[in-house]
# Entry
Amino acid sequence: MEAMSSPERKRTGRRPGSTDTREQIAVAARALFAEVGYEQTTYRRVAASAGVDPALVVHFFGSKEELFRHVTALPPAIADAVEHIADGPRETVGRRLAELVVDSLENPASRALLLARIRATTSHPEAASLVRENVTHDLGRLASALSDDQPETRAVLAGVQVVGLTFTRYVLRAEPLASMSASDIVDYLAPVFQHYLVEPLAT
Amino acid sequence: MEAMSSPERKRTGRRPGSTDTREQIAVAARALFAEVGYEQTTYRRVAASAGVDPALVVHFFGSKEELFRHVTALPPAIADAVEHIADGPRETVGRRLAELVVDSLENPASRALLLARIRATTSHPEAASLVRENVTHDLGRLASALSDDQPETRAVLAGVQVVGLTFTRYVLRAEPLASMSASDIVDYLAPVFQHYLVEPLAT
# Structure
């Protein structure tokens, strides 16, 4: 399911019309969740924005929870990349995570996904619980692959950094962060991810 | 103005009835902004929650922007404490900031203030611009007092950490952070604040 809706998915060639429609709906829904939040993202608005009949949204995604869960799951390409960060040299895991996070935020589709998570979380408790699962899942496997010492704590602290960056740069738009170059942000975040992922946690 | 509405203010004894009413309104408004966001916090709801006439809300605070700005400004006691962090030993500034941030979030009044900022920012562009000013102001003076090297960048990076913590612990409620003890959080955040405030920023 997730592979089919991701912008990074490999197209299979099977039932292309249906797959494209599904993908159009997912893109429209992701943008709406990011812009107007969970409550105001209705089947009708998603359908209008995707240029399809509202019944098709129900057909492809069922409940609104399912639609939200689906469009805010990390694309498989990014989820894979998070896991593979553990494969490289240990001294530079922080930098590789910083690069991946910043790249994901520079890409409009994955940025929309992360903003959708933030907006929905503030407005809707049910969405918060879906996002909670995702956040733990996304970084937890990486932290576990890197350290036996409190991997869950390490994952959530790295998550604090990702959430803080996304919110401060793209929602609050606080300067000088809002105008900062991607490579400067990578430079600033790398040592902190390195600390949270593999260094002794408390001093 | 700010001194009069803060829970930490020293009471002057002058017109206590009026001051108390003003404070009641501020407390009610702060809680509503934190719970339901900027848009849905109306004069009428604030007045009902404070048990006063809506005209009094207008009388004391004028516009909704002014009311929001007022109840989401840091209480003078906290703003003073942020500045005085620079006075102690340089090796432990990060820990002192972590303690102050965590103490402020453990206190229901200042937690409501920080949550009000986050909720309003996601829902209302005008509120975002008010919060933006506050965030820069709160940490900017501390960073400038500590370092001549990119103090604005240091302030906003420390802000990323504060925003990320507030959001992840209190809005998203991601574990293990949501259930973590205050002293553990101080231990985990202290080295990162230390890094952002006074260590070389990029490695």
